[in-house]
């Protein structure tokens, strides 16, 4: 399959980059963090293993593989807002069948956080049925880089304090779209009566990635820094996934509806308001997150895939389509003329940002294991 071939090629580049001493993803602070986390696991009441819902297997925390399933270990599939909703439900069912406690969450959704906090408090009450108020419960968040541990810790801290009507300055752990920004283990209070604290830990990857396709998924979702490989190579992999999926087909009705609304607004605002809108668009032409640019990008991709007559299962044919898309996206992103390398680099950066923020659809990259019950 053409997409698999691109994934293996990208994964091989990731693997080669990781093998270079001093420039790979596994740093000395990761090694130290790994040791510190393993020392604390037996001492905490619960361990929450945070995974990326788009890659539920590829984002597993390697150091926990030797630990058997336990009611005190909870797998949390974060970023459910970026994954395919139907497949997330299937993954939750799969983990349940494997005797794992699992929960799906969007750490930026307050209602979701409240529900999850209630779930945690129920587990705590179950664990400490006698003299609950006398105990302090500690929960450690572990996982690979950029799965949203710090974001989840901050959200739980904020909602937990509001629920307990506690006063005082909120603490925050560092949240960054770049992997590896959390360097130390930090503690945040998320509940009172009984007191519950979460320990946010640095993201830790395994020193070596043996599965090249896993490597491609990790770098596409941002768990491994883009700087280790060519961004264009990562963007090409994403386009191969989009081109061979049905996600783009959902845009047809959406684009038609947006055209209708745009036409209606054009008639209504004909005159002064229209000029204001045109000036606004001109002002933000370089901001790819603007809705009108995202619409143009979706339209460009939809039209390029829909009109393509080649075989998408053929690697050469798929590569031809991707080259055409890179050229067309230069206009959609309003990228000025320059060298082909610079233009493609800027297209890749903007495209990856829209994918990683869910503006170009929802994708689950890991398939359910075939040996599932």
From TrEMBL:
SUPFAM superfamilies per UniProt = P-loop containing nucleoside triphosphate hydrolases (SSF52540)
Subcellular localization is given as: Mitochondrion
Q: Locate the CP-type G domain: which residues?
A: 35-207
Q: Tell me which UniProt keywords the record has, alphabetically.
A: GTP-binding, Hydrolase, Mitochondrion, Nucleotide-binding, Transit peptide
Q: What is its main location?
A: mitochondrion
Top-level lineage group: Eukaryota
Query: InterPro entries recorded for this chain?
Result: G_CP_dom (IPR030378), GTP-bd (IPR006073), P-loop_NTPase (IPR027417)
One GO cellular component term of this record is: mitochondrion
Q: One GO molecular function term?
A: GTPase activity
From the Swiss-Prot or TrEMBL record, give the protein name: DAR GTPase 2, mitochondrial isoform X1
Organism, by scientific name, is: Nelumbo nucifera (Sacred lotus)
